[in-house]
Amino acid sequence: MKRQNSFDVSNPAGLKLVPDCNPYLKPNTSEAKLLLDAKVIVWDEAPMTHVHAFLAVDRLLKDLTKCDEPFGGKIILLGGDFRQVLPVILRGSRSLTVSSCIKKHRLWFDFFVMKLTENMRAFDSEKEFASWLLHVGEGESREKIQLPPFCYPEIQDPVQQLFSDIDFKTVTPEELKGRAILTVTNDLSM
């Protein structure tokens, strides 16, 4: 379940995912501490998640934080594409699969949805990158993969770039709203 400061929410705490299951973690466990200490929870491939797991995590975080707000007041960043893979329901009909989707639950309306509206890889200026990405994705590269320089901006200090106008000694949550630095691993974070 625990991987390098991450928590697998695809099946929280190895639960039998049925309606109204009550997940429980003892507050003094390392998993509970990890969730309590988290400022942001990033949930990748969220559209694949069965609504029961979604609700189980909501109940678990409410229980741990003793806060009745959605997900115990934690910031949840969901990522994924609903046009790709929905929850897999063994011998389930199309309507059962759709109704098992997190998008069909009332909690979904508590999220601020941001949509990608332009396929950047389809632009003429991105053809080289699209070709390179396909080459990597098909496993055709036998060498260590090095991102081409055009893939990342030339920013010396991203914290300075994003937060130069903020005094961190007196910062408020409102001042941080709408700003984030996301990184793939903790090793790359500051």
UniProtKB/TrEMBL annotation:
Top-rank taxon: Eukaryota
Reaction catalyzed: ATP + H2O = ADP + phosphate + H(+)
InterPro entries in the cross-refs: DNA_helicase_pif1-like_DEAD, P-loop_NTPase
GO molecular-function terms, A-Z: 5'-3' DNA helicase activity; ATP binding; ATP hydrolysis activity
Similarity comment: family membership: Belongs to the helicase family.
Classification via PANTHER family: ATP-DEPENDENT DNA HELICASE, PTHR10492
Protein name: ATP-dependent DNA helicase
